Fold:
Amino acid sequence: MPIINVDCWEGFNDEQKQAWIKELTDATVNLFNLPPDKVLVVLREVPLSNWGQAGTVATDSDFLAKSRITEPVKQAD
Structure:
């Protein structure tokens, strides 16, 4: 039985979560030729204060800009 775990930010409404679970289930059923009752989807909503990228916490007002660092940061000697 496939178990699909999705870690995501808080804030999706119930309709979005329902559609997301259905789409993930349908894709898995179609790809692996399984009955739908064999697919388990778990959405784990994480508070923004517990989420970070590129050393920046998602609650930072400049998170989008600060989390898009694409070059390695050089360490001081």
